[in-house]
């Protein structure tokens, strides 16, 4: 049986919105924010994203694990990559004047390559910019799993203009990870009941992966069999031969039109600022170099 994320009815303003309007807002916000590298504009988007998060009225207990993963990903991976390499951003980070804060020269043994990793003020500013950018997007999407009614997955994507097959595929995709997690938890409990102790795995990395077979193999096979069952059930119902009908019917209300209008206005304004006014490129504040004595 397919399961979904931990949805809970909260009777908030966000949940009273039409799910199609919410997706239009999410997409418009995402496509707007990726136009900018200026941290001043990104902070504006972060305020909007965080305000949306507060309106969802989620508790720290519900989102603690997700926030832990997001913060580790953003701070460690994106932060370190941006500071040490500066890759993945605008060319101004690696070209032009560089204010070096730290640099070391290292020769790779046997090959004799000289590597000079360094940290510059430009890279530090870029790291902060990238973190704000990623946190703005993740903060906006984190509440989706907890506030989006799983019974409306398919009809929402169909209402956005996607074909029936693609709408159902999106529905199944949203349910895949929680279903896989449920199957893994069930398999782990079953193996523990048979004396399998995952906490006492010993040996190297390869040996530990090999010993995980009693968990990985059943979960993988069950996922494949479950997928085949879904395909057979849809074939028996002649899915795809005619236009599908949906049990639920979505209707826009005044607040939904307001949100859609604001979303389109946000995207249009961002496009005009980016292409028309040529603003939003990487911004290097003068005071940042002053902090390090340049």
Give the overall silhouette.
globular
SS elements, strand count = 4
H-E string: HHHHEEEEHHHHHHHH
Strand content: under 5%
Taking the sheet with the most strands, its summary is: 2 strands, antiparallel
**Average predicted confidence as pLDDT:** 84
Task: Please characterize this protein's 3D structure.
The chain is mostly helical. The protein has a domain at 13-172 and 251-291. 62% of the residues lie in helices and 4% in strands. It is built from 12 helices and 4 strands. It has a two-stranded antiparallel sheet. A two-stranded antiparallel sheet has the order 2-3. The longest helix is centred in the middle third of the chain and has 30 residues, at 164-193. The radius of gyration is 24 Å and the shape is globular. The model has no long low-confidence stretch (mean pLDDT 84).
Write the layout of secondary structure elements.
Blueprint: H1 13-16, H2 19-33, H3 39-55, H4 60-84, E1 100-103, E2 106-107, E3 114-115, E4 118-120, H5 121-141, H6 144-147, H7 153-159, H8 164-193, H9 205-211, H10 213-236, H11 254-276, H12 286-291
Antiparallel strand pairs: 1-4, 2-3
Helix pairs in contact: 2-5, 2-11, 3-5, 4-5, 7-8, 8-10
